[in-house]
Design brief:
The protein is α+β, with helices and mostly antiparallel strands and 932 residues long. 51% of the residues lie in helices and 10% in strands. Its EC number is 6.3.4.19.
Amino acid sequence: MIASSPYAPRRRSSSSSVGRVQPRRSSSSLIANSSVSIWVFLQFWQRLSADRCAGDNRGVDLRGFLQGVSDTIASNLIAAASVPERSAGDANPRRRRISSILGWIVRILGGESSRVGKVITTIIGFTREVLLRSIGASCVILTGGSTLFGHLTRGDDRDTSQMALGCQLSVDGTSLESESNNLPIDTVLEDRCAIDSIVSYWFRASPDNAQKSLWMIASSSVEQMNRIDSEISDRFRSTILDLACDEAMKCRWTDRVDLYDWRGKIAAIIAFDQMSRHIHRHDKMDGISMNNLPEQRHLDKLAYSIALKLQNVHESEIKSGVIPIPMRIFGIMPLRHASTIYDLERVQLDVESSATLHEEMDRMIRRFRKATNRRMAALQDEARREGKLGTKSNSVMDGKVFDDDQILECYPFEADMTTAYDHPVTKTISRFIRKMDILHTSDARFRSPREVFSSSDIEHEVDSKGVPTAIVSLSGGVDSMVIAAVLAHLRDIEARVRHTSKDEILRIVAIHIDYANRPESGAEAAYVERFSEKLGIQFTLRKIDEITRGVTARDDYERIAREIRFDIYRRTCAEVSSDGTVQRGVGIMLGHHRGDLRENVLSNAHRGCGPLDLSGMTEVSTNDGVVLFRPLLFLEKSFIYDYSHTYGVPYFKDTTPHWSTRGKLRNRLLPLLEEIYGEGSMNNLSTLATESDDARELIGETVVTPFMSQVNKHPMGFTFETAPWKGRSLFFWKFVLRQVLHNSGRGMFSDKSVSSFLERIRVGTIKEGWLQCRKDYAVYLKRSGKVLVFHPDSFPFNKRDAYKVQSAPVEYGIGVKVGPWQIVPEITAACMEDEADALCKSKALSDIDQLMLGDICYFVKAPIPPGHSFPRQLTMMSGFKKRTRPAAWKGLDLRIEQTLPLLGVNHSCDDEVGDVTWALIKVRLSLKGLGD
């Protein structure tokens, strides 16, 4: 039935257009359609003829025939992809022509009664729909009597599916009508094409991009707005007009859930509520007075009714997320446009429901991402265990050679360096090395005079102080690479000013640590070495191959890797200080900048650090006995990038995973905070870090200095008193303990251990004994409140780190070395028996304080076998048994006895009978080279 809306334009009627709107056609589209149809037929017939000839007139080979159909369809899909997009109205004649072609093929091959005719009749429904898909029918409905899918199902299922569709296929393709509701299949396909066209256009981009470019174009973007309005008017005016004027079409889109589901309603809402406004605005801008589109208020009513129907009919799809959230929002937009309290309450409820659903989906994505990352880590760990990842040296990994293009983010180039000193990075580093007394550059050369060096002054400085050294931890990142390049530049300029060799101005040492955890790490190490050689920098490489991430336990890996890193730092600093060069300003330069300071503030705050430890880093600090320099700490990273890009300093690609904690903090959290609180918030974080350091310095001078002055260092560790300060707060103790422990290269106690520590020292009568503060080193509390902290090298408190002692005899006068201990047994001169007994009974340690000195002496009696002049050799032992324990160790702490490498008499060899002659043996354990 034709719509009787007063807005409907006049239409021409014909015998074939009763009951539906005629699609618009163009001569060019008909020509293109005919060409495609003829091409399909010719390709099909050419293959079929070839098969007939190949079959030697014995009929068409069935396999060859099916292959011909398959090749024809595949070729048609490729050809159709190259044809320009056509409107939905052009699809109908193409469908009829394809159906006709298939009918011609059946008749040419001998009719439906022939062998081939029966085969093609069987697959005609499937073939027709595939060809329809190739020319623009995005949603295919398989029809026909006996299809390929029908042969793959049971008879009952096939009959049920045919009855549900209610379709009957005609061989000539001219009559595909629905028996149940008289709905032409071509009409269904036209509707599907129009619905998909609207939905795909409106939701073609991500929400953020579509918001700016389509949905809510800024009023200032007049050109963009006019372009979108014109595009929507040209593409969708006729569809919206048909939908508004043809009641049957509107009912099909919104009521036929079995055909169009919720997409028909979404498309109708978009057409009436959104696209119509673009078309009205376009007509108004162009001054079109005869607008054949209904008024917007009429379209709003249509959109409102469809929106209510969407909410009621598809409630389950909405709540379960089957309907995407952007479509859900536009589906309820007509209710918001209605602007009534009732409607807006419904919108608010839907918005809250959408927000809850979004949170659930976000949690699901995060769980999936976390599981994926864990799986990736497991696969990488497995590859490392099998030696397939991160184990080969140099730049070759699994047969792959990494070149510079694969590891570099920025490439080196020759640049004009005349303006380099005026750059903020150069000035910052120059001021820092002066401040640290590393190198005093000639101020007269740099146009910022404070003092001018004469030639005699320069010679005197070099002769009296030697050549200074700067050590850089060179990872290959932009920060450390720029530091090395700037130091080399300052050194070279100073050498030219002083008319001397650059080696006499400043020695630069670069330390690179290859963790061997990534395939390209070997190539990166090789490149950094070449970079250092080019700049005249001494290069030191430390490859960590004794542990492997994924193979070694995670906690052990992090601990050992850190120990290795700081060990190479300490050894390099020691070499610099002992080779005759100047010892001033010896430390490791790190590339931390102002951005790292901000990240530390957030990380430390969430990890429970106090107000004095928010920054976690200062320009100069000491960690594990290593002095650390951070010359760029108060400089923004943008300046570092600018120096690199201006003066050709190369650096590696950032390999920090976006899913890692650091990646999330840097790429998601900090940008979000800046978006919420403004650009100044980042400076506030940096300022907070600086003020935290200032407060730390103030507290250190007024409170911590008196405490630190009574800390005493010994060869085996250090001691400090607690009695004068035991009433101080938890904050005080956490602060001073961190200072004391870090200055001595020991890790900080946990919060729980600090609380337990305070409970032990605050009681009226202190119980003496070992404290469970750390697993890796020993802590002892005396009754007086004195605390002794032992170095793990000389006193391995953890059984895992215990000395590997072999029960072997030790020669007199020569001794043996175990760890840092030198153990030497000596035969003493003859003395009276009473005197010998007294010496044997004298305690090896008068007090645990004596253990801190690292020098232990005790006496034992060793039997002299009959017929021998020398006593039996003593044996290495890790703890004595009760029966064989020397008198010198009786009554002493068993933990000390079990930890130290001691010598004793092996009584398992006591097979002598009668009187036994004994010799007095002096055993000395001495510790050398530990504790400063």
